[in-house]
Write a structure and sequence with these properties.
Rossmann fold; seven-stranded mixed beta sheet; His_PPase_superfam; Histidine phosphatase superfamily clade-2
């Protein structure tokens, strides 16, 4: 989207502070200040939090921060690295490490006072059945769980979003760049967390990628108690570091500037419990899920004219974005926090990139289905300039390109796309850097001894 001039229709931002391209909506320059939360004229900073219940949920124009369905690499807009388009290099894509958050879902956090609108989630079939370890054995009846009333349990209704996601990835990385094979083979590898959400997303995305493939595919998972994603392994240092980063003046200040907002929401929604008042996680999740599935913002159960306004929701979203930027970029313990939460997984990514560097990768394409709590620290390790909450299906594509031998001796370059845009990092744009430099950038976040660090 380079050079595209674009202004959001609702922009009331001052000159120099408004996003002028879709990619800019990811990088509010003042996100590290608590004034970002309280300044209502910032609105959504050109992003969007709304989607119809069915059908595609991407923002318009393509490429803006869109919480309900973050943009992903798509053929019409995908651009080759500048070094290739300007003719200074000739290289081919040799490896893709693709990480994504699961697709759109219903809320985790149901309002303590009750929801004034019921969720109807009976139009999705979460399958669960076991088969023999061979195509020759007797195959089981495909069984799915039929929901028959609205529930407080989360699961993914976003199968359409996932299918489109896979189709789009195929057009770029299969059709156009020839890396993803026409049918799955031994050079592709998939993994998810232990959550049904990520597994359901994988089924939809991979079906979009290979619509006619008739076989089954392995989706690798670690044992949940030691999983290196989604906070699997036990680590008391995660809790103690979190406690300490919440004791700073900055953290207290963000609660201070939102005192009025939080007490209004508490009165309307009966949400005075500490779990609702001490971070913006629960309010954000509840409002995002409503807006992303075609529902209205909530009203009081006892007074139908006392409702959460869009202005309140936007302030909640700005506060949520401030918190994510604080957790993974600006808190004083950020290196340790990323190490204890995500360091092992970052180490796994590095070892796959290192195998490419050493000329011995075991696969050409790895795709891992994870959570916002994984995407955040990984972007932190890359030194992203600003980090808004990674929305549904937020994705990171690590591309490795090999120079034609006669040019630079087959040397390897990396590019990292976040939701389709090259990452803007404190290390410069991650658009065309030596693969070894990318490894150097991420390596400090891999703990030397996680067992003793975790305590
Ligand atoms: C609020 O934000 C607008 C646009 O970003 C800016 O022009 C204005 O100075 C800000 N106001 C305050 C009080 O920070
Ligand atoms: C082409 O792009 C690369 C990467 O951005 C840059 O380093 C190089 O100077 C550019 N070369 C020309 C001739 O513009
Ligand atoms: C909170 O805000 C009030 C004014 O609204 C101010 O007097 C107080 O010092 C602030 N406290 C902190 C910890 O920032
Ligand atoms: C929340 O409000 C209820 C009802 O007004 C009250 O009984 C309870 O003590 C409050 N809890 C907190 C943590 O303030
Ligand atoms: C209901 O909410 C509206 C809007 O906040 C308020 O004006 C009204 O006084 C409330 N009614 C009662 C009975 O509390
Ligand atoms: C973020 O703001 C705090 C002060 O509120 C400052 O100490 C810190 O250096 C800033 N961090 C970055 C990365 O800008």
């Amino acid at each position: 989207m380079r050079g595209l001039s674009w202004l959001p229709a609702t922009s009331v931002l001052g000159v120099g502070l408004s996003p002028v391209s879709p990619a800019d909506t990811f990088y509010p320059p003042t996100l590290n200040s608590t004034a970002y939360i309280s300044n209502s004229s910032i609105g959504t900073y050109g992003g969007t939090y709304e989607a119809a219940r069915n059908g595609p949920a991407g923002g318009t124009p393509y490429g803006i921060y869109s919480y309900c369905s973050m943009p992903h690499p798509r053929s019409p807009e995908y651009e080759l690295p500048e070094a290739l388009t300007n003719g200074s290099a000739d290289a081919k894509l040799v490896y893709l490490e693709y990480l994504q958050r699961h697709e759109r879902r219903s809320p985790y956090n149901i309002l303590p006072g009750g929801e004034n609108q019921a969720y109807h989630c009976d139009d999705v079939r979460p399958y669960l059945y076991a088969g023999p370890n061979s195509a020759n054995g007797i195959q089981p009846m495909p069984m799915y769980a039929q929901t028959y009333q609205d529930t407080s349990n989360p699961f993914s209704p976003g199968v359409n979003d996932g299918y489109q996601h896979g189709k789009d990835l195929w057009r770029v990385y299969g059709d156009k760049l020839g890396l993803i094979p026409a049918t799955p083979n031994k050079r592709v590898w998939f993994r998810s967390s232990n959550s049904p959400l990520t597994q359901a997303s994988a089924g939809a995305v991979l079906r979009g990628m290979w619509p006619d493939y008739e076989g089954a595919l392995p989706l690798h998972q670690m044992v949940s108690s030691v999983d290196t994603v989604d906070s699997g392994y036990p680590c008391s240092a995660v809790d103690s570091t979190l406690l300490s980063l919440k004791s700073t003046t900055q953290w207290k200040e963000h609660l201070n500037v939102t005192e009025g907002l939080r007490s209004k929401l508490s009165a309307i929604l009966g949400a005075n419990a500490t779990s609702w008042q001490s971070t913006f996680d629960h309010f954000s999740d509840n409002f995002q899920a409503r807006l992303c599935n075609g529902y209205k913002l909530p009203c009081s159960i006892s007074n139908s004219s006392a409702c959460v306004t869009m202005q309140m929701a936007e302030e909640v979203f700005r506060a949520g974005d401030w918190e994510w930027n604080y957790y993974w970029r600006t808190n004083p313990d950020v290196v340790k926090y990323i190490q204890v939460v995500e360091g092992l997984f970052i180490g796994e990514i590095i070892s796959r990139l290192q195998a490419v560097q050493d000329g011995s990768p075991s696969v050409d394409y790895s795709h891992i289905f994870i959570h916002d709590g994984d995407i955040g620290p990984i972007l932190g390790s890359l030194g992203i300039e600003a980090l808004r909450w990674p929305g549904m299906a937020a994705n990171i594509a690590f591309e490795v390109w090999e120079m034609k031998a006669e040019q630079h001796d087959g040397s390897l370059f990396a590019r990292v796309l976040y939701s389709g845009h090259p990452v803007r990092s404190i290390h410069g744009p991650l658009d065309w850097i030596p693969l070894s430099k990318l490894i150097d950038i991420m390596s400090p976040y891999v703990p030397g001894d996680i067992i003793s660090l975790c305590g």
